Amino acid sequence: MKPLDGKIALVTGGSRGIGAAISARLAADGATVAFSYARAAGVAADLAERLRSDGARTEAFQADQADPASCARLVDDVVATFGPLDILVNSAGVYRTGTIDDPDRDEASFADQLQTNVVGVVATTRAAVLNFTDGGRIVSVGTTGAAQAPFPGIGDYVATKAALAAYTRAWSRDLGPRRITVNIVQPGAVDTDMNPADGPNGDFQKSLNSLNRFADPSEVAALVAFLVGPEAGFITGSTVNIDGGLSA
Fold first, then answer.
1. Where is the Ketoreductase domain (predicted)?
2. What mean pLDDT do residues 102-128 have?
3. CA distance 89 to 8
4. Which overall architecture, per CATH, does domain 8-240 show?
5. 121 contacts 90 by C-beta, under 8 angstroms
6. What is the pLDDT of residues 209-232, one digit of tens each?
């Protein structure tokens, strides 16, 4: 028997990068996996087909994580397809950089980041918990930058993730009576198409951590899988770094 047999999971932003690794790991652990995507329908369809070929029960759903109404519809559609949720992983997010004194900042872009990374997560979680089984699991994907800013220009981004860490602590209190655990994982550098290890800033990012390398997305997914699994029932309201010693 697999650890997540019989569980229904929703992974937002689950078609690419860390989100795709989480979708694949939860499916491999036996969960029925619904995952959302914003625009890359072909990528999402390919992942769903790959997971099905491995025996998973899965479906991709389009959603705009910057739009609270779309987030609520996403949850409604998943529940209508698969039933009440046991697991929610808030992985969808965008990364926009720029210093506070930059006269050419695209304020609309930064407003979209706030909507996607904070407002959308709140809207999705609010809708999900109304359709959640008692004893369920919620995990959000943050960043170690929520506690430190190692280089300029990331203030707006890390502030959104710091907000998620605060929500995590508060939601664990709200949902504790239902035995729903709420945690946040904070990765450091992770090798994805958006931030490749061999990219222009790769060597610099490696130099910031003790292991002098990027994480593989599967390593983050393994941590998430543990936190949503049966052995993590007494872990809640926690911030768990997975950063190769960046925060040491």
1. 7-193
2. 96
3. 11
4. 3-Layer(aba) Sandwich (3.40)
5. yes
6. 999 999 999 999 999 999 999 999
